[in-house]
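Researcher: Final request for today, and then I'll write up notes for the group meeting. The sequence and the SMILES for fe (ii) ion follow.
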Amino acid sequence: MNEFQWDMEMNIGVAEIDEQHEYLTGVLNTLCQSFAQGTDKEILEETISQINDYGRYHFETEERYMRQFENEYPDYIAHLEAHQEFFEKVVSFLLDYVEGKDSITIELLNYLVDWWFQHINGMDKGLGKFLQQKGVAEA
Ligand SMILES: [Fe+2]
Ligand SMILES: [Fe+2]
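Model: Predicted protein-fe (ii) ion complex:
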């Protein structure tokens, strides 16, 4: 898999969220590169647990911003569901691998990376625009 890194073009205008996106993009890249190089299971497991923990922390951060405008932000429910879906369709499979139940596939990692960038460029950018209108995010 090709290396990838954070691109400032993907910033949504909330520094706290942009920094988290950048950090998690780096962790996802580490996972993909480690997998491609056949790195030790231990290192893969460590990276997966970071994705699980930091991923939850990141989604909670966004949801905190969303909750402030629960009745006005039009994608509130859909955005919560999308975060939930990421854990059901991606992270749960990674955790199965950690528990020795399943193996990681290139398809799963491709799905993970596509999901991540599409989500940021779609819903998260939309959230950023909304927060800009509310004066919470920088344009
Ligand atoms: Fe996000
Ligand atoms: Fe999000």
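Model: The pocket of fe (ii) ion (ligand 2) is lined by residues 62, 79, 83, 119, 123-124 (CB under 6 Å). The chain is about 75% helix and 0% strand.
Researcher: Thanks, that's everything.
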